[in-house]
């Protein structure tokens, strides 16, 4: 019997390609898919998948927060995060959110299929370098962060990233489904943690970070 895969990807062309890739295998089949975060939990309930493949960037939320939600409601459902964004930025956050693996979209198709099978078998799928970093961080609480951005919470990083993509406070609030006041609170915390004093510097730092890590 084929093992059941649920896809969460907000780009229809990419989602169709992922579905075709999975469905042509002998042991896997896509049983459901979502293009927005609001649909995911209901979709999982309807289809009872064996694994969820979640894009890091998804309409209405982000893959890290969505992974937390999925794991809270379906603790036995393994989640594999799929992303075009830097592994060094998001992989450890994904694992801490409950994901069983992280795969870059730039990897060959066979790597994604192997990752799906790996998390289905109960293993953790990361690159060798990232696995060493994640294991090390769990072994010692004093492991140093590789950059100040690593000290941001998941929601703070999400705010930082959105501003780096040129969004306004209102636009960020709409995407994150929170109030503008909440966005401003997160921004204040980010500025404090990164040692930023002005709004212009905040936007410049966010834009530079996005160009280097999240383009």
From TrEMBL:
Residues 145-209 form the HTH luxR-type domain. SUPFAM superfamilies: C-terminal effector domain of the bipartite response regulators, CheY-like. InterPro entries: CheY-like_superfamily, NreC/VraR/RcsB-like_REC, Sig_transdc_resp-reg_C-effctor, Sig_transdc_resp-reg_receiver, Tscrpt_reg_LuxR_C, WalR-like. The keyword Membrane does not apply. It comes from the Bacteria. Residues 4-120 form the Response regulatory domain. The modification 4-aspartylphosphate is found at residue 55. Coiled coil: none annotated. Keywords: DNA-binding, Phosphoprotein. The keyword Magnesium does not apply. This is Response regulator transcription factor.
